[in-house]
TrEMBL record:
<dbReference type="Pfam" id="PF01628">
    <property type="entry name" value="HrcA"/>
</dbReference>
<dbReference type="InterPro" id="IPR036390">
    <property type="entry name" value="WH_DNA-bd_sf"/>
</dbReference>
<dbReference type="InterPro" id="IPR002571">
    <property type="entry name" value="HrcA"/>
</dbReference>
<dbReference type="InterPro" id="IPR036388">
    <property type="entry name" value="WH-like_DNA-bd_sf"/>
</dbReference>
<comment type="similarity">
    <text>Belongs to the HrcA family.</text>
</comment>
<feature type="domain" description="Heat-inducible transcription repressor HrcA C-terminal">
    <location>
        <begin position="110"/>
        <end position="341"/>
    </location>
</feature>
<dbReference type="InterPro" id="IPR021153">
    <property type="entry name" value="HrcA_C"/>
</dbReference>
<comment type="function">
    <text>Negative regulator of class I heat shock genes (grpE-dnaK-dnaJ and groELS operons). Prevents heat-shock induction of these operons.</text>
</comment>
<dbReference type="InterPro" id="IPR023120">
    <property type="entry name" value="WHTH_transcript_rep_HrcA_IDD"/>
</dbReference>
<keyword id="KW-0678">Repressor</keyword>
<dbReference type="GO" id="GO:0003677">
    <property type="term" value="F:DNA binding"/>
</dbReference>
<dbReference type="GO" id="GO:0045892">
    <property type="term" value="P:negative regulation of DNA-templated transcription"/>
</dbReference>
<keyword id="KW-0805">Transcription regulation</keyword>
<protein>
    <recommendedName>
        <fullName>Heat-inducible transcription repressor HrcA</fullName>
    </recommendedName>
</protein>
<dbReference type="InterPro" id="IPR029016">
    <property type="entry name" value="GAF-like_dom_sf"/>
</dbReference>
<keyword id="KW-0804">Transcription</keyword>
<keyword id="KW-0346">Stress response</keyword>
């Protein structure tokens, strides 16, 4: 991909104008159009030279001979990362509509998420995707350490939904000196179990591996390594997200767009949305690679063939800082990114606040 820092200020301006014009018209962009409609303060010839340089860099291309230019996936990527700002006005508007139209008190969560998806697709004009909350969000109700002999301890965990699971671990450092005195070992493990229940009850199991135990109670310092190992085992077991159903809305919205005029393409996307959601789900629930809250996959950045001509924008919604689901928008790469990104981020923020 072309490095944005290599673009001159004028080239960045021309790229910005080309992307904006193409998003608005769906027609290849010429230098005369940019000169007439954007205050670039340069001649059409200068704009044409700039567009030629951007084409050589792989940021624009000509769909056919003698046509104007169209942004490539790389061109959209630089536009999204460097040249645009999400719409604060639209973010406030979707937050207002969600507060006014969704009722967490009288409706089921499924109905609330379905309503949020409908609002999102109506405002964006694209397909909205909202995953149902994770089922792997169990919280610790009770924990018991049981001696098993041969240097082993069975950790029995009961969740808030009364599901039971167990882990077999090596005997705790600091306890092993007790030796073969089973009664004393049981007493020691009971004291440790009580301590852990007091500290951990009510916490999500997925959060346990990230807890900071640097200031552990002095009486239990000798077990710190064992506790750290135990919590990591419990937490790691619940880090892998589990597929949940996706609420889909707005398919009819995108059928009016020229990018979806071919029946075969529409059919492959509908098949993915209706029958192969488990393939799409990891892309929607993915954590952004950068520090940004929103994850943006443009065109060929999508690994699934049916949506390699689309852009997928998503953001996770959380419950008490724990990711439990995602909000997404799927549309053409010729997308109004300022609006779509703002809508996704604001909807995810609203759901996080409401669920927490």
């Amino acid at each position: 991909m072309f490095v944005q820092s290599k673009l001159t200020a004028r080239q960045q301006q021309i790229l910005w104008a080309t992307v904006r014009h193409y998003i608005a018209t769906a027609e290849p962009v010429g230098s005369k159009s940019l000169a007439q409609e954007y205050n670039l303060n340069v001649s059409p010839a200068t704009i044409r030279n700039g567009m030629g340089a951007l084409e050589k860099a792989g940021l624009l291309y000509q769909p056919y001979t003698s046509a104007g230019r169209v942004p490539s996936d790389s061109g959209y990527r630089i536009y999204v990362d460097r040249l645009m700002t999400p719409s604060d006005t639209l973010a406030k508007e979707v937050a207002r509509l969600l507060r006014e139209q969704l009722n967490f008190d009288s409706c089921s969560l499924e109905a609330v998420l379905r309503g949020a998806a409908q609002i999102l697709s109506t405002l964006s004009g694209y397909i909205s995707l909202i995953t149902m909350p994770q089922t792997k969000t169990e919280r610790l109700q009770h924990l018991q350490l049981v001696p098993m002999g041969s240097g082993k301890i069975m950790v029995v965990v009961v969740t808030h939904t009364y599901q039971t699971q167990s882990i077999l671990m090596e005997i705790a450092p600091g306890v092993e000196d007790i030796g073969d005195d089973t009664e004393i070992l049981e007493q020691e493990l009971q004291i440790l179990s009580n301590f852990l229940n007091h500290q951990l009850r009510g916490l999500a199991l997925a959060e346990l591996s990230t807890l900071d135990w640097t200031e552990i109670d002095q009486d239990f310092q000798q077990y710190s390594n064992f506790i750290e190992q135990l919590l990591k085992s419990l937490g790691d077991r619940h880090q892998t997200p589990e597929y949940t159903r996706i609420q889909v809305s707005g398919v009819s919205e995108v059928l009016r767009l020229p990018e979806f005029s071919q029946l075969q393409q529409v059919q492959t996307i509908l098949h993915l949305l209706e029958d192969e959601q488990e393939q799409l789900w990891p892309l929607i629930f993915a954590t952004p690679e950068s520090s940004q809250q929103v994850n943006i996959r443009i065109g060929s950045e999508n690994p699934l063939e049916p949506i390699r001509s689309c852009t997928l924008i998503s953001a996770q919604y959380r419950q008490n800082s724990q990711p439990i689901g995602s909000v997404g928008i799927l549309g053409p790469t010729r997308m109004v990114y300022e609006n779509a990104i703002a809508l996704v981020e604001a909807t995810a923020n609203y759901l996080s606040e409401a669920l927490s």
